[in-house]
Amino acid sequence: MDKGKVIEFLRQRVLNRFALGDDAATQAEVNANIHKGIMIRGSNLWVLIFAIFIASLGLNTNSTAVIIGAMLISPLMGPIIGMGYSMGVYDFNLLKESLRNFLFMVVVSLITSAIFFTLPLITTTQSELLARTQPTTYDILIALFGGLAGMVAQTRKERSGTVIPGVAIATALMPPLCTVGYGLATLQFRFMLGALYLFTINSIFIALASFIVTRVMKFKMIGELEPYKLKKLKRAMVAIIIIVTLPSVLIAISIIQRSSFESNYNNFVGEAFKYDNTFVVESSYEYNANPRKQSVIEVRLYGEPLSENVINNIRAQMSSIYHLPKVDLVVRQSNQEDGGIAITALQSNYTEMLNEKNRQISHLQEQLSSIRTADTLAVSSMTRELGIFVPDISDMSMQRHISYDINGTATDTAYICILSFQEGAEPDIDLIKHWLTNRTGASNIQILVK
Description:
The chain has 16 helices and six strands. It has a three-stranded mixed sheet with strand order 1-2-3. Strands 4-5-6 form a three-stranded mixed sheet. It is extended.
Protein backbone atom coordinates (compact mmCIF):
# COMPACT_ATOMS: atom_id res chain seq x y z
CA MET A 1 0.00 0.00 0.00
CA ASP A 2 1.16 3.50 -0.84
CA LYS A 3 2.72 5.36 2.12
CA GLY A 4 0.56 8.45 1.49
CA LYS A 5 -2.61 6.36 1.56
CA VAL A 6 -1.56 4.72 4.83
CA ILE A 7 -0.97 8.12 6.44
CA GLU A 8 -4.32 9.41 5.16
CA PHE A 9 -6.07 6.27 6.43
CA LEU A 10 -4.56 6.67 9.89
CA ARG A 11 -5.38 10.39 9.93
CA GLN A 12 -9.01 9.68 9.13
CA ARG A 13 -9.19 7.02 11.82
CA VAL A 14 -7.83 9.46 14.40
CA LEU A 15 -10.15 12.25 13.28
CA ASN A 16 -13.15 9.93 13.45
CA ARG A 17 -12.26 9.19 17.06
CA PHE A 18 -12.55 12.89 17.92
CA ALA A 19 -15.57 13.65 15.72
CA LEU A 20 -18.50 15.29 17.55
CA GLY A 21 -21.12 14.58 14.93
CA ASP A 22 -21.96 10.94 15.70
CA ASP A 23 -24.28 11.43 18.68
CA ALA A 24 -24.93 15.15 18.19
CA ALA A 25 -28.42 16.55 18.71
CA THR A 26 -29.98 18.70 16.04
CA GLN A 27 -29.65 22.47 16.33
CA ALA A 28 -33.38 22.69 17.04
CA GLU A 29 -32.99 20.33 20.02
CA VAL A 30 -29.94 22.19 21.32
CA ASN A 31 -31.75 25.51 20.89
CA ALA A 32 -34.76 24.20 22.82
CA ASN A 33 -32.53 22.89 25.65
CA ILE A 34 -30.68 26.22 25.88
CA HIS A 35 -33.93 28.21 26.02
CA LYS A 36 -35.28 25.90 28.71
CA GLY A 37 -32.09 26.15 30.77
CA ILE A 38 -31.93 29.95 30.92
CA MET A 39 -35.37 30.39 32.49
CA ILE A 40 -35.22 31.25 36.20
CA ARG A 41 -38.79 31.14 37.41
CA GLY A 42 -41.11 28.86 39.32
CA SER A 43 -39.40 25.64 40.44
CA ASN A 44 -36.02 26.76 39.05
CA LEU A 45 -36.13 29.90 41.18
CA TRP A 46 -37.00 27.99 44.34
CA VAL A 47 -34.28 25.42 43.64
CA LEU A 48 -31.80 28.29 43.24
CA ILE A 49 -32.82 29.80 46.61
CA PHE A 50 -32.61 26.44 48.38
CA ALA A 51 -29.24 25.72 46.77
CA ILE A 52 -27.92 29.09 47.99
CA PHE A 53 -29.03 28.29 51.54
CA ILE A 54 -27.36 24.85 51.34
CA ALA A 55 -24.12 26.30 49.98
CA SER A 56 -24.14 28.99 52.67
CA LEU A 57 -24.58 26.33 55.33
CA GLY A 58 -21.68 24.40 53.80
CA LEU A 59 -19.47 27.48 53.94
CA ASN A 60 -20.64 28.19 57.48
CA THR A 61 -19.87 24.67 58.71
CA ASN A 62 -16.77 24.30 56.49
CA SER A 63 -18.30 21.21 54.87
CA THR A 64 -17.04 20.48 51.37
CA ALA A 65 -19.62 17.72 50.89
CA VAL A 66 -22.53 20.10 51.59
CA ILE A 67 -21.10 22.68 49.17
CA ILE A 68 -20.80 20.02 46.45
CA GLY A 69 -24.42 19.03 47.05
CA ALA A 70 -25.52 22.64 46.59
CA MET A 71 -23.59 22.94 43.33
CA LEU A 72 -25.20 19.77 42.00
CA ILE A 73 -28.76 21.11 42.32
CA SER A 74 -28.01 24.70 41.35
CA PRO A 75 -29.43 25.99 37.99
CA LEU A 76 -26.73 28.66 37.62
CA MET A 77 -25.10 27.16 34.53
CA GLY A 78 -28.12 27.65 32.24
CA PRO A 79 -28.03 31.42 31.57
CA ILE A 80 -24.22 31.45 31.26
CA ILE A 81 -24.20 28.71 28.61
CA GLY A 82 -27.09 30.55 26.95
CA MET A 83 -24.96 33.70 26.61
CA GLY A 84 -22.11 31.83 24.93
CA TYR A 85 -24.43 29.92 22.59
CA SER A 86 -26.42 33.04 21.61
CA MET A 87 -23.24 34.92 20.68
CA GLY A 88 -22.08 31.92 18.65
CA VAL A 89 -25.24 31.90 16.49
CA TYR A 90 -25.91 35.69 16.62
CA ASP A 91 -29.23 35.16 18.41
CA PHE A 92 -29.39 38.54 20.12
CA ASN A 93 -32.89 38.05 21.53
CA LEU A 94 -31.62 34.94 23.34
CA LEU A 95 -28.55 36.90 24.45
CA LYS A 96 -30.74 39.61 26.01
CA GLU A 97 -32.92 36.99 27.70
CA SER A 98 -29.84 35.15 29.02
CA LEU A 99 -28.31 38.35 30.39
CA ARG A 100 -31.60 39.36 32.02
CA ASN A 101 -31.98 35.98 33.72
CA PHE A 102 -28.31 35.91 34.68
CA LEU A 103 -28.50 39.29 36.44
CA PHE A 104 -31.76 38.30 38.16
CA MET A 105 -30.14 35.05 39.30
CA VAL A 106 -27.14 36.94 40.73
CA VAL A 107 -29.33 39.44 42.62
CA VAL A 108 -31.50 36.68 44.12
CA SER A 109 -28.41 34.70 45.14
CA LEU A 110 -26.76 37.69 46.81
CA ILE A 111 -29.92 38.66 48.71
CA THR A 112 -30.48 35.07 49.86
CA SER A 113 -26.91 34.50 51.03
CA ALA A 114 -26.73 37.95 52.71
CA ILE A 115 -29.93 37.17 54.65
CA PHE A 116 -28.47 33.84 55.77
CA PHE A 117 -25.19 35.36 56.97
CA THR A 118 -26.97 38.07 58.96
CA LEU A 119 -28.24 35.28 61.21
CA PRO A 120 -26.07 34.74 64.32
CA LEU A 121 -24.73 31.39 63.13
CA ILE A 122 -21.22 31.98 61.84
CA THR A 123 -18.51 32.69 64.38
CA THR A 124 -15.22 32.47 62.47
CA THR A 125 -14.12 32.76 58.88
CA GLN A 126 -13.77 29.18 57.67
CA SER A 127 -11.23 27.93 55.12
CA GLU A 128 -13.96 27.22 52.56
CA LEU A 129 -14.89 30.91 52.64
CA LEU A 130 -11.27 32.02 52.35
CA ALA A 131 -10.73 29.70 49.38
CA ARG A 132 -13.23 31.74 47.33
CA THR A 133 -11.50 35.08 47.77
CA GLN A 134 -8.25 34.71 45.84
CA PRO A 135 -8.84 33.53 42.25
CA THR A 136 -5.89 32.57 40.07
CA THR A 137 -5.14 31.50 36.51
CA TYR A 138 -5.99 27.94 37.54
CA ASP A 139 -9.61 29.01 38.10
CA ILE A 140 -9.67 30.37 34.53
CA LEU A 141 -8.48 27.04 33.15
CA ILE A 142 -10.99 25.13 35.25
CA ALA A 143 -13.84 27.35 34.04
CA LEU A 144 -12.71 27.14 30.40
CA PHE A 145 -12.33 23.36 30.24
CA GLY A 146 -15.40 22.85 32.42
CA GLY A 147 -17.42 25.08 30.10
CA LEU A 148 -16.17 23.17 27.06
CA ALA A 149 -17.25 19.88 28.64
CA GLY A 150 -20.63 21.36 29.64
CA MET A 151 -21.42 22.74 26.20
CA VAL A 152 -20.37 19.52 24.47
CA ALA A 153 -22.76 17.67 26.77
CA GLN A 154 -25.53 20.15 25.90
CA THR A 155 -25.15 19.33 22.20
CA ARG A 156 -25.63 15.56 22.68
CA LYS A 157 -28.83 13.62 22.03
CA GLU A 158 -28.50 11.83 25.35
CA ARG A 159 -28.02 14.36 28.18
CA SER A 160 -28.59 12.08 31.18
CA GLY A 161 -24.89 11.47 31.90
CA THR A 162 -22.67 12.84 34.65
CA VAL A 163 -20.94 15.54 32.59
CA ILE A 164 -23.18 18.53 33.40
CA PRO A 165 -23.33 17.81 37.18
CA GLY A 166 -19.56 17.33 37.12
CA VAL A 167 -19.07 20.65 35.37
CA ALA A 168 -21.29 22.35 37.97
CA ILE A 169 -19.01 21.02 40.71
CA ALA A 170 -15.72 21.79 38.94
CA THR A 171 -16.53 25.37 37.93
CA ALA A 172 -17.94 26.22 41.38
CA LEU A 173 -20.33 29.08 40.57
CA MET A 174 -22.38 28.84 43.74
CA PRO A 175 -19.75 29.24 46.53
CA PRO A 176 -18.28 32.55 45.26
CA LEU A 177 -21.76 34.10 45.15
CA CYS A 178 -22.42 32.97 48.72
CA THR A 179 -19.06 34.41 49.78
CA VAL A 180 -20.03 37.76 48.24
CA GLY A 181 -23.23 37.57 50.30
CA TYR A 182 -21.12 36.92 53.39
CA GLY A 183 -19.04 40.00 52.61
CA LEU A 184 -22.21 42.07 52.21
CA ALA A 185 -23.71 40.80 55.46
CA THR A 186 -20.53 41.36 57.48
CA LEU A 187 -19.34 44.46 55.56
CA GLN A 188 -16.01 42.79 54.75
CA PHE A 189 -15.32 44.13 51.29
CA ARG A 190 -12.17 42.08 50.75
CA PHE A 191 -14.40 39.01 50.66
CA MET A 192 -16.80 40.71 48.27
CA LEU A 193 -14.19 41.80 45.73
CA GLY A 194 -12.23 38.53 45.60
CA ALA A 195 -15.29 36.28 45.46
CA LEU A 196 -17.09 38.50 42.92
CA TYR A 197 -14.00 38.44 40.74
CA LEU A 198 -13.88 34.62 40.94
CA PHE A 199 -17.55 34.40 39.98
CA THR A 200 -16.97 36.79 37.07
CA ILE A 201 -14.02 34.73 35.82
CA ASN A 202 -16.02 31.51 35.96
CA SER A 203 -19.01 33.05 34.19
CA ILE A 204 -17.04 34.70 31.37
CA PHE A 205 -14.92 31.66 30.57
CA ILE A 206 -17.85 29.24 30.71
CA ALA A 207 -19.63 31.53 28.24
CA LEU A 208 -16.47 31.69 26.10
CA ALA A 209 -16.23 27.90 26.09
CA SER A 210 -19.89 27.65 25.02
CA PHE A 211 -19.19 30.14 22.22
CA ILE A 212 -16.20 28.07 21.02
CA VAL A 213 -18.13 24.78 20.97
CA THR A 214 -21.02 26.46 19.15
CA ARG A 215 -18.64 27.61 16.42
CA VAL A 216 -16.90 24.22 16.23
CA MET A 217 -20.27 22.52 15.78
CA LYS A 218 -20.97 24.92 12.87
CA PHE A 219 -24.51 25.71 13.91
CA LYS A 220 -26.56 27.79 11.52
CA MET A 221 -26.58 31.52 12.27
CA ILE A 222 -29.95 32.67 13.55
CA GLY A 223 -29.26 36.39 13.21
CA GLU A 224 -27.10 38.54 10.97
CA LEU A 225 -24.29 40.87 11.86
CA GLU A 226 -22.64 43.42 9.63
CA PRO A 227 -18.87 42.96 9.13
CA TYR A 228 -17.85 46.09 11.04
CA LYS A 229 -20.14 45.16 13.97
CA LEU A 230 -18.72 41.64 13.96
CA LYS A 231 -15.22 43.11 14.12
CA LYS A 232 -16.22 45.32 17.07
CA LEU A 233 -17.78 42.34 18.83
CA LYS A 234 -14.60 40.26 18.49
CA ARG A 235 -12.45 43.16 19.74
CA ALA A 236 -14.76 43.64 22.71
CA MET A 237 -14.57 39.92 23.59
CA VAL A 238 -10.76 39.91 23.39
CA ALA A 239 -10.55 43.08 25.53
CA ILE A 240 -12.88 41.62 28.18
CA ILE A 241 -10.89 38.37 28.31
CA ILE A 242 -7.57 40.23 28.70
CA ILE A 243 -8.94 42.58 31.37
CA VAL A 244 -10.43 39.70 33.36
CA THR A 245 -7.43 37.40 32.95
CA LEU A 246 -4.59 39.79 33.81
CA PRO A 247 -5.31 40.19 37.57
CA SER A 248 -5.64 36.43 38.03
CA VAL A 249 -2.28 35.88 36.34
CA LEU A 250 -0.66 38.39 38.69
CA ILE A 251 -2.31 36.71 41.70
CA ALA A 252 -1.14 33.28 40.52
CA ILE A 253 2.44 34.56 40.12
CA SER A 254 2.30 36.06 43.61
CA ILE A 255 1.05 32.79 45.13
CA ILE A 256 3.75 30.78 43.34
CA GLN A 257 6.45 33.19 44.54
CA ARG A 258 5.21 33.00 48.14
CA SER A 259 5.01 29.19 48.03
CA SER A 260 8.54 29.06 46.64
CA PHE A 261 9.75 31.37 49.43
CA GLU A 262 8.09 29.22 52.12
CA SER A 263 9.64 26.06 50.70
CA ASN A 264 13.10 27.65 50.55
CA TYR A 265 12.63 29.05 54.07
CA ASN A 266 11.82 25.60 55.51
CA ASN A 267 14.77 24.08 53.69
CA PHE A 268 17.09 26.83 54.93
CA VAL A 269 16.06 26.61 58.60
CA GLY A 270 16.21 22.81 58.51
CA GLU A 271 19.69 22.53 56.99
CA ALA A 272 21.73 25.70 57.58
CA PHE A 273 21.74 25.44 61.40
CA LYS A 274 22.70 21.79 61.82
CA TYR A 275 25.37 21.85 64.53
CA ASP A 276 26.16 19.28 67.23
CA ASN A 277 25.66 21.57 70.23
CA THR A 278 23.27 24.13 68.77
CA PHE A 279 19.71 23.74 67.56
CA VAL A 280 16.79 25.91 66.44
CA VAL A 281 13.99 26.25 68.99
CA GLU A 282 11.91 28.79 67.08
CA SER A 283 11.87 30.41 63.64
CA SER A 284 9.58 32.80 61.80
CA TYR A 285 9.52 34.87 58.65
CA GLU A 286 7.98 38.04 57.31
CA TYR A 287 7.46 37.71 53.56
CA ASN A 288 7.44 40.88 51.47
CA ALA A 289 6.15 40.58 47.90
CA ASN A 290 7.56 43.99 46.99
CA PRO A 291 10.92 43.32 45.27
CA ARG A 292 12.24 46.66 46.52
CA LYS A 293 11.81 45.61 50.15
CA GLN A 294 13.52 42.82 52.01
CA SER A 295 11.83 39.83 53.56
CA VAL A 296 13.01 38.86 57.04
CA ILE A 297 13.79 35.48 58.58
CA GLU A 298 14.27 35.30 62.35
CA VAL A 299 15.85 32.26 64.01
CA ARG A 300 16.20 31.58 67.74
CA LEU A 301 19.01 29.23 68.75
CA TYR A 302 19.74 27.30 71.94
CA GLY A 303 23.03 25.73 73.00
CA GLU A 304 26.55 26.67 72.09
CA PRO A 305 26.52 30.18 70.50
CA LEU A 306 27.57 30.47 66.88
CA SER A 307 30.35 32.89 66.06
CA GLU A 308 29.77 35.94 63.92
CA ASN A 309 31.87 34.40 61.15
CA VAL A 310 29.66 31.31 61.06
CA ILE A 311 26.51 33.43 60.94
CA ASN A 312 27.96 35.57 58.15
CA ASN A 313 28.80 32.41 56.23
CA ILE A 314 25.19 31.26 56.62
CA ARG A 315 24.00 34.64 55.33
CA ALA A 316 26.26 34.28 52.31
CA GLN A 317 24.70 30.90 51.49
CA MET A 318 21.11 32.20 51.57
CA SER A 319 21.09 33.47 48.00
CA SER A 320 23.36 30.97 46.25
CA ILE A 321 22.38 27.71 47.98
CA TYR A 322 18.93 28.28 49.46
CA HIS A 323 17.55 30.68 46.79
CA LEU A 324 16.62 33.39 49.29
CA PRO A 325 17.95 36.63 47.76
CA LYS A 326 17.15 39.97 49.36
CA VAL A 327 16.27 38.32 52.66
CA ASP A 328 17.55 39.67 55.97
CA LEU A 329 18.55 37.08 58.58
CA VAL A 330 18.13 37.82 62.28
CA VAL A 331 19.77 35.29 64.61
CA ARG A 332 18.96 35.37 68.32
CA GLN A 333 21.08 33.21 70.60
CA SER A 334 20.78 32.21 74.25
CA ASN A 335 23.62 34.48 75.37
CA GLN A 336 22.27 37.65 73.75
CA GLU A 337 20.62 40.17 76.00
CA ASP A 338 18.28 41.58 73.36
CA GLY A 339 16.56 38.35 72.44
CA GLY A 340 17.16 35.46 74.74
CA ILE A 341 15.28 32.25 74.25
CA ALA A 342 11.52 31.98 74.35
CA ILE A 343 10.91 29.54 77.19
CA THR A 344 7.61 28.39 75.73
CA ALA A 345 9.30 27.63 72.41
CA LEU A 346 12.01 25.64 74.19
CA GLN A 347 9.38 23.74 76.17
CA SER A 348 7.47 23.06 72.98
CA ASN A 349 10.61 21.73 71.34
CA TYR A 350 11.31 19.42 74.26
CA THR A 351 7.69 18.29 74.29
CA GLU A 352 7.90 17.35 70.62
CA MET A 353 11.15 15.47 71.22
CA LEU A 354 9.62 13.66 74.20
CA ASN A 355 6.50 12.73 72.23
CA GLU A 356 8.64 11.36 69.42
CA LYS A 357 10.67 9.29 71.89
CA ASN A 358 7.45 7.97 73.44
CA ARG A 359 6.19 6.97 70.01
CA GLN A 360 9.44 5.13 69.32
CA ILE A 361 9.29 3.37 72.69
CA SER A 362 5.68 2.35 72.07
CA HIS A 363 6.60 0.99 68.65
CA LEU A 364 9.51 -1.01 70.08
CA GLN A 365 7.27 -2.40 72.83
CA GLU A 366 4.78 -3.59 70.23
CA GLN A 367 7.57 -5.29 68.32
CA LEU A 368 8.92 -6.83 71.52
CA SER A 369 5.51 -8.17 72.54
CA SER A 370 5.22 -9.94 69.20
CA ILE A 371 8.46 -11.83 69.80
CA ARG A 372 7.86 -14.55 72.37
CA THR A 373 11.22 -15.76 73.64
CA ALA A 374 11.90 -18.81 75.77
CA ASP A 375 11.71 -16.71 78.93
CA THR A 376 8.23 -15.40 78.11
CA LEU A 377 7.11 -19.00 77.56
CA ALA A 378 8.16 -19.94 81.13
CA VAL A 379 9.95 -23.12 80.07
CA SER A 380 10.97 -24.02 83.63
CA SER A 381 7.33 -24.07 84.78
CA MET A 382 6.24 -26.08 81.75
CA THR A 383 8.98 -28.65 82.37
CA ARG A 384 7.66 -29.27 85.91
CA GLU A 385 4.06 -29.49 84.64
CA LEU A 386 5.01 -31.86 81.81
CA GLY A 387 6.91 -34.07 84.26
CA ILE A 388 3.68 -34.78 86.18
CA PHE A 389 2.01 -36.73 83.37
CA VAL A 390 5.20 -37.74 81.50
CA PRO A 391 7.41 -39.01 84.33
CA ASP A 392 10.07 -40.36 81.97
CA ILE A 393 11.12 -36.86 80.79
CA SER A 394 14.63 -35.79 81.77
CA ASP A 395 14.86 -32.19 80.51
CA MET A 396 13.30 -29.79 78.03
CA SER A 397 14.44 -26.66 76.19
CA MET A 398 12.37 -24.42 73.91
CA GLN A 399 13.14 -21.42 71.72
CA ARG A 400 11.69 -19.39 68.87
CA HIS A 401 13.05 -20.15 65.41
CA ILE A 402 12.70 -17.91 62.31
CA SER A 403 13.26 -19.23 58.78
CA TYR A 404 14.60 -16.97 56.00
CA ASP A 405 14.71 -17.38 52.24
CA ILE A 406 17.77 -16.66 50.08
CA ASN A 407 16.72 -12.97 49.83
CA GLY A 408 16.88 -12.59 53.59
CA THR A 409 13.08 -12.35 53.97
CA ALA A 410 11.44 -14.07 56.95
CA THR A 411 9.23 -16.89 55.66
CA ASP A 412 8.14 -18.84 58.73
CA THR A 413 8.21 -18.81 62.53
CA ALA A 414 8.20 -21.94 64.66
CA TYR A 415 8.95 -22.98 68.24
CA ILE A 416 11.57 -25.71 68.54
CA CYS A 417 11.18 -27.96 71.62
CA ILE A 418 14.04 -30.34 72.43
CA LEU A 419 13.18 -33.17 74.84
CA SER A 420 15.33 -35.79 76.62
CA PHE A 421 13.83 -38.97 78.13
CA GLN A 422 15.08 -41.66 80.44
CA GLU A 423 16.53 -44.73 78.79
CA GLY A 424 13.89 -47.18 77.59
CA ALA A 425 11.02 -44.62 77.73
CA GLU A 426 8.38 -44.62 74.99
CA PRO A 427 6.69 -41.19 75.27
CA ASP A 428 3.59 -40.17 73.31
CA ILE A 429 5.01 -37.32 71.20
CA ASP A 430 1.60 -36.37 69.72
CA LEU A 431 0.16 -35.99 73.21
CA ILE A 432 3.09 -33.83 74.29
CA LYS A 433 2.77 -31.65 71.16
CA HIS A 434 -0.96 -31.22 71.75
CA TRP A 435 -0.31 -30.19 75.37
CA LEU A 436 2.40 -27.70 74.37
CA THR A 437 0.11 -26.15 71.75
CA ASN A 438 -2.63 -25.56 74.31
CA ARG A 439 -0.15 -24.43 76.97
CA THR A 440 1.71 -21.86 74.82
CA GLY A 441 -0.92 -20.82 72.30
CA ALA A 442 1.64 -21.32 69.52
CA SER A 443 0.34 -23.02 66.37
CA ASN A 444 3.65 -24.22 64.94
CA ILE A 445 5.68 -26.37 67.36
CA GLN A 446 8.42 -28.74 66.24
CA ILE A 447 9.57 -31.43 68.75
CA LEU A 448 13.03 -32.92 68.60
CA VAL A 449 14.03 -35.87 70.79
CA LYS A 450 17.66 -36.26 71.89
